[in-house]
Structures are given as C-alpha cells and as structure tokens.
Amino acid sequence: MWTLTFSNLRHNRAMYLATFLNLYLGGAILTAFASLYESGSAPGVSKADRDTLQTMALVIGGWGALIIAFGTAATLSLAVRQRERQIALLKAAGALPGQIRRMIMVETAALLAASAIPATPTGMALGRAVTAALKSSHQVSHGVGHRFGATALSIGFGDIVLAAGGAAVVAGRRAANQSTAAALVTSATDDAGLGRKRVIWAVVLLGLGVNAAVMVATMMKDEGYDAMSVAGQACILTALGLAVLAPVLIRATAAVLGPLMRGTGGYLAEAELRQHSRQAAGVLMPVILFVALANGALYQQFIQDDANRAAHLTPTADDKGVQTLSFLVVGMIALFAAVVVANLAVAGTLHRRREFGQRRLIGDTPGEVRRSLGWEAAVVLVAGLVSGTLAALVGILPFSYARTGDWLPDQGIGVFLGVTAVVVALTMAACLGAARRALRTPALAAVGA
C-alpha cells in the first residue's frame, strides 16, 4: 500500500503539492492562534490579558478552522476526482473497495505528516509575531509571554486532521462505491445535478446567514461590535452556502456569458465548463470566500470607524482590539484563500496537459488554447465576484443600517475594486502561467504521457 501511495504522490505531483501547501498553511495559521489561547491560560496572566488573547484565539481560530477545513476538503476532493479514471482502472484490475479507501486514507496521512513538519515552526513564529504586535499596540501587557506547546499543537493540527480525514473518508467512499463503468464516464464528464446532501447543506448555510443578517438589522441597532460580530457571521455563512452551490453557479454563469464566448471563439471553453463544471467549481469556492470575507470585514470595520468619528468617540482599547482582530481575520483568510485559489488553478491546469496536447494535434495553436483557458478563468471570476459580493452585502447592508440608519454605506467602492484587482490578477496569473508551462511540452509527448 505504501509503495502504491508514494507512486501516486510522485505521478500526481501538482495536485498533491497543492494539497500539501494548503495543509501546511492551514496548520501554521491554526496552531499560531491556538498558541494565543495557550498563552492566555498561563499562570500569572491578568484577567484582561487572558480575555484579549483567548477571545482573539477563539474568534479567529474558530472561523478560521471552518474556512480552512472547507478549503482543505475542497482540495482533497478535487485531487481524488482528478484520479477517477485511474481508480476505475485499479478496480478493473482487481482492487477491492476497501483497498481503494485505504489507499486514499494512507495518501492523506502521508501529506498530513509531511505538512506538520514545516507547519510547526511556522506556526510558532507566526504566533510569536502576533503576540509582539499585540504588545506593541498596548492591547496586552509587555509581561505576557508567548507559549507554544501541547495545547496549541493539539488544537491546531486536530482541526486539520479532522478536516482532511473527513474529506478523505467521503472522497474515498465515493470512489470505492462507484462502479468501474460509471467512474470512466464521470472522468470524461460531470453529473449535471447536485446531490441531496449538498443541497441540504447549502439551504441550511444560506438560511443561517440570512437569519444572522435579519438579527443585525432588527435586534442589534446601535450595538456596535456585537452587531459587527453577527454581521461577520452572516457573511461567512452565506459565502459557505454559495460555495457549496459552486457547480451550479459555474454552469449558470457559462450560460449567461455563452453568446459572448461563442462570438470570440470560446466554443471549447463553454463546452469544457458545461462538461466539467465541478473541476472549475474547485477554484470558484475559494474565490467566493476571498471576495466575501475580505469585502465584508473591511467594509464593516470602516463603517464602525466612521460611526465612531461621527459620534466624536475616542477609540478605546477595546476599539483598537476589535480593529486589530478584524484586520487579522482579513489577513489570515485572504492569505489562505489566495493560496488555495493559486494552488487549485495551477494544479487543475497542469492536470489538463494531455487535453491541451490533443487539441494542438487537431489544429489549435498554443494561443488559442490559452485564450480558451482565459475564458474559463473569466467565467470563474465573474461567478466568484458576483457570488462573493452578494455574500458580503448580506453582512454589510444590515450592519450599515444598524450603525448609521442607512442601508447603503458611504465608504465607496475603493475596497471592492482593490479586492477585485487582487483576485483577478491572482487567478489569471495562476491559470495562464500554468498553461504556458503545460504548453511547453510537445503535443505528442503530452498525449503519450
């Protein structure tokens, strides 16, 4: 089993490297903020310092764990989905369903073990840096020491192990239970529908997000940071709900942009998105999270700051703490989502090297292949920007009403344009850069591989 595992890891380097990087970064972030909780629990720490450290650890660690788990599960699921044909051939050669499941679990365990080695010192350094920043901004006393021990490691890596293990179990069960013929068919085209469980999860998450938004607008007027906290939950829950519906969003966006794509030679891009929407959905999920959470957290913080200035309120230590917390949330989530977007875009593009070779053999030029891929990336970006903006507005609009009495904030679109520029540049650079690398391989060699 270990021989087959390392052979798979070697021959699917791009996808498994993306998974490794996600596990590494997620483990580093979660252990760093778990160390704040451990530092606050140390003997001799004052109650005020303990509350500051543990609140920051619970807020960022809690929501960060959910988002990182979501991104990790999406990456692992895509890694297994890209190998459906290979798994089908293994089953045709005599592999049992239990052996398929065990193979996927062993691969996941190997990646977890490998990622934990660099994630531990990185998490320690990041936690120490956050503690130093809190001291320099006078949010905790200078006598507070940073602790990184068993508690930080168990909480941080425990979340990653649960997320990766759960994703491996689900992906392994699906791959093992699917018949060989069905696996060969789904490796060539996607199922057009959504599973019942996915629909239920989407409805639940969207319902919770809307419920949080209604609470902010109706029950939390003028409650300041409590309202901001619930509005942030509305953004996150709505973004997760829309991310679950990513395959449907891809197909709907491709249908809307279809006439424009066909008019500029994007026929193959439209067909690819229609037949393999779940592959593109893997990139769309982190784009939605990036756009929603970055816009939501930043606009809410700016609305709160402007409301305090309008009321001639001097920022207190609590105000500075919440502001730091907001920017840390944005920074952590944006960094992780950006890495996931780049990883999935690069791995997904490199995985299609053989397809690009076939297209070149039938007459497509490298420029036409890149243009088609650019259209696919554009569809993902349009779907991600629209869906992420809607999720952000679910939190921003009720919070603006609760703090100012107006539904529309006065902060302008500068933040939105900045977030849009970052996600567009990142996604396009990852997709087209990987395509350029894939197209360096001669067409016959790519098809033979």
TrEMBL record:
Domain ABC3 transporter permease C-terminal: 63-178, 328-442
Membrane spanning stretches: 14-37, 57-80, 199-219, 231-260, 281-302, 322-350, 378-401, 413-435
Matching InterPro entries: ABC3_permease_C (IPR003838), Macrolide_Exporter_MacB (IPR050250)
Superkingdom of this protein's organism: Bacteria
Membrane topology, from the record: Multi-pass membrane protein
Subcellular location: Cell membrane
Main location as per UniProt: membrane
Key words, A-Z: Cell membrane, Membrane, Transmembrane, Transmembrane helix
Pfam family, one: FtsX
Protein family membership: Belongs to the ABC-4 integral membrane protein family.
Protein name listed in UniProt: ABC3 transporter permease C-terminal domain-containing protein
